[in-house]
Amino acid sequence: MVSDAVSAPVSKARRAGNGTAYPRYVAGKAGGAVVSLLAVLVTGFFLFRLIPGDPVKTMTGGRPVSAAQLAEYRKQFGLDLPLWEQFTDYCRKALSGDLGMSYQFRTPVIDKITEALPNTLLLTGTAFVLYTTLGMFLGIRSAWRQGRVGDRLNTGLALTLYSVPSFWLGLLLIVVFGVGLGPVPGLFPTGGMESGGEEGFAYVLDVAHHLVLPVITLVAVEYGQTLLVTRSSVLDEMGSDYLTTARAKGLRDDLVRRRHAVPNALLPTVTLVFVNLGRTVAGVILVETVFSWPGLGGLFYQALSVPDLPLVQGLFLFFASAVIIMNTLADLVYPLLDPRVGR
Amino acid sequence: MSPQDQHGTRRSHPRRPRSRSARLMAAVGAAALMFSAGLATPLNPVPQRAEAAQGKKVLTVAVAQSVDSLSPFLAVRLVSTSILRLTYEYLTDYDPGDAHPVPGLATSWRPSADKLTWTYTIRSDAKWSDGQKVTAGDAAWTFNKLMTDEAAATANGSFVTNFSKVTAPSPTQLVIKLKKPQATMTALDVPIVPKHIWKDVKDFSKFNNDKTFPVVGDGPFVLTDYKADSYVRLQANKSFWRGAPKFDELVFRYYKDQDAAVAALRKGEVSFVAGQPALTPAQAASLKGQKNIHVNEGPGRRFYALATNPGARARNGQKFGDGDPSLLDQRVRNALFMAVDRKTLVDKVFQDHAVEGQGYIPPRFSTYFWKPSSSQELSYDPSKAGQLLDQAGYKKNADGRRVGRDGKPLNYRVLCHATDPNDKAVGQYLKEWWGKLGIGMTLDCLDNVTDPWLAGKYDLAFDGWSVNPDPDFVLSIHTCAALPATPKETGATDNFICDKTYDELYAKQLAEYDPARRADIVKQMESRLYDLGYMNVMAYPNAVEAYRTDQIKTIETMPRAAGNIYGQDGYWSWWSAVPADSGSSSGGSSTGVIVGVVAGVVVLAGAGLFLVMRRRTTADDRE
Hints:
The complex is a heterodimer of chains A (about 350) and B (about 625).
Chain A lengths: L1 H5 L1 H7 L6 H27 L7 H6 L6 H11 L5 H13 L13 H36 L4 H15 L2 H14 E2 L2 E2 L14 H39 L2 H8 L4 H28 L4 H6 L5 H10 L3 H29 L6
Helix pairs in contact in A: 3-15, 7-8, 7-10, 7-12, 7-15, 8-10, 9-10, 10-12, 11-12, 12-15, 14-15
Chain B lengths: L2 H5 L11 H21 L7 H7 L4 E6 L14 H10 L4 E3 L6 E3 L2 E6 L5 E6 L13 H13 L14 E8 L2 E6 L16 H4 L22 E7 L3 E6 L12 E6 L3 H10 L4 E2 L7 H7 L5 E6 L3 E7 L21 H9 L3 H8 L4 E3 L25 H10 L3 E2 L5 E2 L7 E7 L3 H17 L2 E7 L3 H5 L5 E7 L5 H5 L23 H11 L4 H18 L2 E7 L1 E6 L3 E3 L17 H5 L1 E2 L8 H29 L2 H4 L1
Parallel strand pairs in B: 1-10, 1-11, 17-18, 17-19
Antiparallel strand pairs in B: 2-3, 4-5, 5-7, 6-7, 8-9, 9-10, 11-21, 12-21, 13-19, 13-20, 14-20, 15-16, 22-23
């Protein structure tokens, strides 16, 4: 078939899951990921011990505390043990899935993470789907109509929003659509994830209502990146011979773009999508702060300010693992999209 | 070749068929619009409206600080201790007028002649929220737990270090025996917990008291719900012995950004905003004069000072750190402070939201407030400061720099908190003023000043403490006993001050049970501290906060005449708050209608767009 012939790279890729090359490739990437994870485990412990500040003194600052109480704090946190003992203890527990107990919240780190993770995923995940879809759609359109008014408008707006500080845009949205400005009524809550006390469907609506402004902020600030990467990779394909062939055989422009140009231009966007997907779990500190969203970004900030060592270590390990796993997945997807990768 | 490819030959109409991607986008767009519309339904009105609909009077307070624990044995943060202050009574409270001790759980108290035994009469009309009576046994159990369980002593252990024995001979009598006299026995800020609930707790270091609600307490409010970094919900305790609060519910709602909290106040989503720790001058100015909003400004409980390193040392006599030795000369310290124009700092940096600093304890604590006499006062006088430096042997060289006998120019490192804009602004003024005196200055602004501070590696530092109605703690941090035992350990000391005269006065005030005589000794301590010149108080920042008058009709400040609302030494504000007449704060119904209309329009627009897009595609494309 003609269409198969002209979209050669992608079509071949679909047939390319053959032989031993791919399993070897997968094993190599998975091995690399495991080594990276171990490196993160070790780095996480020592890196955060370089942060200035005594957790016990920070936590008890401004309160009447006796020397015996300070000693008790250190004993409870295991800070009275030699560093190597703290390290081996940390590694042993981390490898068995125990990330320790938060100093400031007196709660297992894993509980704090699982408490905030769904909130973060709801916010960043919703935003991720929207800004990736929007960015890719507009990026493809822009490239296809390069130089036209629509393209310039799209690229200009995306670049402008991409350079806007998210906290500033968030505050602006709160003032305009949260509080209401002039004829615009305050349609959305000014912050938080829920009003509290709602149940069932009312709760879902309540959370969704709170989600609107932070998601709009994130989408506005983030979609530009996807748009620009997609646009530039589609532009790279624009002069390709196989597109000329596709047009020559009489294919509609829309189909030339969708079936031939876009699939071959996807690789850089896929990288970006997976990197962004890895980042979604880390939360977005500024947006979470402005909208008082109880997510992992805000938790990480609180952990750093003490420093709450088990919590920062746990979160660091978790964030880094997410990025490593997503990057590895991206690596595993490449050969399926383009057989030249992983040969 | 697929049928679609054949139809794709019509290149003369490139924009007409939107095909699958267009449909997909239209569907996503419509879904997003409908999603948004769903979000914008009036089913989720702002909190106070929802609760008003249920006939409840709700007071919503915007807070930013996360709760560390809801266990009174572990909680140390202001937000947590403020909430626990509402749910558990203490033995004594502080009068909202002048902060003198007034009955709490104890109706009266008396020390023995030898000053070593205190007997408290426990009220018989107090009940736990589960209906059981509050007895002296609960108080005795709480104190004994603090004395015997190290984990339980985490937050409040310092209150019982001088206790030798605590007993409850009867349900209304509590007896505390001391190792040595202690004047702070009417300032035991320890939440008394119900023994019948807490005796089952196995490990106090891990029990956060935040899983089972309602939490049994005996304060004016009962803790009924909590979700980390979202809200803390309390209900009025209708059987509170002092009388039920006027609001039915008190909600602490999280706003991590102060500007967002102010926006929420404007909208009416919250009734009160305290600020972190106060509203900024710009926020206060923007709220002043706004309809239905009252900005409350009162004397704060903090002092803002410049601490001088007197040469860090440990209790074992070992010296450490690298404080500039020239600062050991009192004339140099006094000269530095005399070159500081406190009035300008209050006007320009604090923008009039502070009071000029004098003695160590802020003026709101009238019993202990002291200020220097005119002959003692180190008032702003740069020329006299120059003379003092000359006398001390630090004369100006040809370049106009003050040099010591060793020929080295004076240059001080000032430790500042990078997170505090006031530190940076004041630092710039100091640089200018001391520069005119011929003294160089380096401003070291750090996110976390603890390390250089504890190591004594600084010359001067910006310092500040919140003072309690009983000033014992802020006085104790300048005693020799508060120094670290060894250079490697951490002491309770603030900035390594150790002065024999001051220590003698400290011991004397702690053993003095007569309030007036004790206050007199405390003032002597403040005078001594002032003369030493190691703690120079520059200002007392005001408490600046705001509330909605269409939600809160009246609320008690502390001190009553003019004071703060959030973070009081007691539950007076929230307990006394009177709701405004219902209806005045709503406006919710009209907004709800607008929201509903907009939502409907958006849904219809989304659905319409979707249909139009579908119709524009050809029948073949849809097949």
